[in-house]
Structure formats: C-alpha cells, structure tokens
User: What shape does this take?
Amino acid sequence: MWRQGRAPRCHTLADVHALVLRSRPMLTHSRKRRPPATRRRALELLAVSPDGCTEAIMVAHGFAANMLADLIRDGLATAGTERVVAGGRSIEVARVRVTDTGRRVLVGRGKP
Assistant: This one.
C-alpha cells in the first residue's frame, strides 16, 4: 500500500510501467507529424526554385533519394552535377530541376 511521502516498491516491469503512467500528466493531444514527402510536393519545390535544388536540400526537406530517382526516370525532373566552392574547397553536388513535363503535371495537363 501507499504510505504518505514514500513511493511504492516496484517489483516487476509492469509495476514500473503502471507507476510511470500514473505519475505523468495525461496528454490531451498528440504531436502532429509532417505529412509524408510526396512526388507532387517535390515537384512543387523544384518548380519554385529557378535553379532547381541540390539533392542534399531535397533530402533535408524529407524526400528520399530513390523517390527523386523515380521523378528523373519518369521524365518529370532532370539531374546534373556541378562543382561549387564551399569553405574554400571545391565539391561536386547533384542539382535536380523540374522539366516541362513536370510543370504540366503540376497544372493538371499531363500524366502524373
């Protein structure tokens, strides 16, 4: 039994779990998660970027590299490499750009 000022002894994992659940305030809402990255969102991001986006930027926005490869394979985007100087060092980056076909898909005049 509970004694005032003392925590109950917990002998099993279930007892510990029950104690933790009782001691925490009840959550009234869950954390909203970002929607999954979709092909359309990727195309929209590429369409508003005049020079396209690097692969690293797209991955940072939550797009998987294989999904970007699917867009390129389907002719909705193109990819090329370019050299940029960062921190005094020259590195090669992949830049992805939307194609005219990808733009037509966005406005609803092409096949997805």
Summary: The chain has a mean pLDDT of 78.
